[in-house]
Amino acid sequence: MDEVGAVAGAVYLLAPDGTALEMAVMAGLPRAFAAPWERVGINAPIPVADAARERRLVWVGGEEEMAARYPRIAVVLPYPFALAALPVATDDTVYGAVFVTWPGSHPPELSAWEREHLAAACERLALRLQRVSERGRPFRTEPDILGDQALTGGSNAAEALQLLDRIPEGLCALDLNGRITFVNPAGAELLGLARRELLGRQLWGALPWLNDPVYEDRYRAALISQQPSSFVALRPPRDWLSFRLHPSTTGISVRVTPARTAGGTGRHAVEPSPTRLVAISHVLSLASGLTEAVGVDDVIEMAGAEFMPAVGCQALVILAAEAGRLSVIGHRGYDDPHIVERFHGMPLSAHTPGAQALVTGVPSFFESRRDLEQVYPARQNTRDGMAAWAYLPLIASGRTVGACVLGYAEPHHFPPDNRAVLTSLVSLIAQALERARLYDAKHRLAHGLQSALMPRSLPDVPGLEHAARYLPATRGMEIGGDFYDLIRGTGTGTGDSIGIGDGIGDGPAAVVGDVQGHNVAAAGLMGQVRTAIRAFTAVGQPPGEVMAGTNRLLIDLDADLFVSCVYVRLDLEHHRALVARAGHPHPLLRAPDGSVRVLDVPGGPVLGVDGASRYPATEVPLPPGSVLALYTDGLIELPDTDLEEELADLGAHLAGVGAGPLEEVADSLVAHTAQTHERADDVALLLLRLTGTRPASEGTASGGR
């Protein structure tokens, strides 16, 4: 820090499990300034995590760039400063990361000289950490470095103190933690306390009338930006004082003088808000978090975690209007959900404060139960354990989308400034709620469409066990074109006609396919493809013709989407199958002895490209007890991995678990995929196991499931 002129910084070490960075030591600023980032995930969107994860220098040249690239930091620390973060790493090991900051006056670019010095320092630190690690010694913690505020200089120091004592203006010194290390007599007189009562205490802790986030924010702004800051405060009952803060890297010098308006009345023209309703970090976290909320549950969770502590309430309810009635869409703070849910379904015409807030769009505040029951006598019989309430309409895009009810366990005063703050804050929730309800509606529509197009259940086929899974991609609308199906067939499946040649098999058929895309169009086309395959199967077409006919239909539909597919016709009596493939991943076959092989059968191009394409069918033996796995590429295609290695890994896993019940095997295969919880593509899986049971000689019901 000294070499490059930085004023603050910190060292983070990588946690033993490699998932997080933990602050080891901070210098130049109190650790409380970085409290939200004491421990951060290695994938968190902050500079030190980026530096460690990507092994590169991260430079943020100022306040605007911080807001654009790292908004979560900018909303909590909205001050002018520059920051550099670097990895602490050797060629083969990342130990952590370092960040350092400069005042906002630093040039917008990091100089080559500064870059070289920072990189060299981090390399030296990495080598020291490597030596400690190789010796098997733990990394020792050490105290944060906040500088030395002690006065030195012998007689010169004594003379300086005497000089300060004689100055008629109030002067005091704060260390980096905001504690008072010196105050002259004039300053103590203006602040209204004896010097002994001030020394060693934080300014806002010693003086209750300064105990407001607005004033503490000025101190934080001065320390981080290293630029002068000022504010005016009222010392009760009527004396206004002006505070001018002059920061340095070791502390802050404060000049205190009486504040005067132009008229000399001694009263400042604008009174700063004395409200303690809102803790700044909670509010900013709420605003930032709500931008990431996806569904209604996310909004409710964020409101409970951030909004309730900020406004000091003990209960929260979010209401909406549905079909002319009150709908409780979420609540927090009530041990008994029935207390709130009894209001669900009430007509909007009911004389209740929640309904009135929804209908009129006018907020109402009740500072005690008596106030509430005077306006709404019926509430005498519907006690919820609270003693004060705020009913706030949620207004977005010029219309009321809901109402937010805040409950306080004790009587609560709502002065005008508190009401204004509450009304402003719930507008954040209103905007997020409108987005979330729209998302949830689209989500339900997408899943409804997906469910309607996929088989609700698979038919029972004697001699055959089956298990299927479908998992949508976790990005986007969670709807896609992957599908599976099992069709009984047109007969018993016992004839020799399934053999290679011109004969047409009449046994059950299985299919797994993948329509290009992850949207409604892909899902719609998937339904058409699945219907076409069932139709061609029902009229007795052999596997190759089923694929060719579906291919020609797709081209006629001019859908402009491609489909990969694998189709299997089964002969359960003779334990064999015909497999036809259209640009689809090769099936896996687990033999009864536990060995697994890839069925590298020839195939044609994906469906929907060339109407003249041919799809050869290959006969495959299926001994009783063998397991055939048909799947889509979402099960094996993962980012930054080799497809062949993933396929081999999936086969090895099938070999290990394939002897168990098929439902458990299906769950295990899906869970084995690294992207089960963060899938970029859909996954469809169909497992078939021949049991060896001889199917009935008489035909089963044709075509049904």
Rough outline: globular
Query: What does the radius of gyration come to?
Result: 35 Å
Biggest sheet overview: 6 strands, antiparallel
Structural class: alpha+beta
Q: Roughly what fraction of the amino acids lie in strands?
A: 15-25%
- List how many beta strands DSSP finds: 26
Q: Helix amount, in percent?
A: 25-40%
Low-confidence stretches: 148-155, 261-279, 492-504, 695-705
Strand order of the largest sheet: 3-2-1-6-5-4
The number of helical segments is: 19
- Ends apart, CA distance between termini: 73 Å
Mean pLDDT across the residues is 81
Characteristics:
single chain; 705 residues; alpha+beta; five-stranded antiparallel sheet; 19 helices; 32% helix; globular; disordered C terminus
Describe what is shown at a glance.
The chain is an alpha+beta fold. Helix content is 32%, strand content 24%.
Structure description:
This protein is of the alpha+beta class and 705 residues long. Helix content is 32%, strand content 24%. The strands form five sheets. A six-stranded antiparallel sheet has the order 3-2-1-6-5-4. It has a five-stranded antiparallel sheet with strand order 8-7-11-10-9. Helix 10 (280-290) runs antiparallel to helix 11 and helix 15 (416-453) runs parallel beside helix 16. The radius of gyration is 35 Å and the shape is globular. It starts with 7 loop residues before the first strand and ends in a 15-residue tail after the last strand. Mean pLDDT is 81; it is low at 148-155, 261-279, 492-504 and 695-705.
List the helices and strands and how they pair.
Blueprint: E1 8-14, E2 20-27, E3 39-41, H1 47-54, E4 58-60, H2 63-69, H3 71-76, E5 81-89, E6 94-103, H4 112-134, H5 155-166, E7 170-174, E8 180-183, H6 185-191, H7 195-198, H8 203-206, H9 213-225, E9 229-235, E10 239-247, E11 252-258, H10 280-290, H11 296-311, E12 315-322, E13 325-332, H12 338-341, H13 353-360, E14 364-366, H14 369-375, E15 388-396, E16 399-408, H15 416-453, E17 464-471, E18 481-487, E19 509-515, H16 520-538, H17 543-557, E20 563-571, E21 576-582, E22 588-590, E23 596-598, E24 617-621, E25 627-631, H18 643-657, H19 662-672, E26 683-690
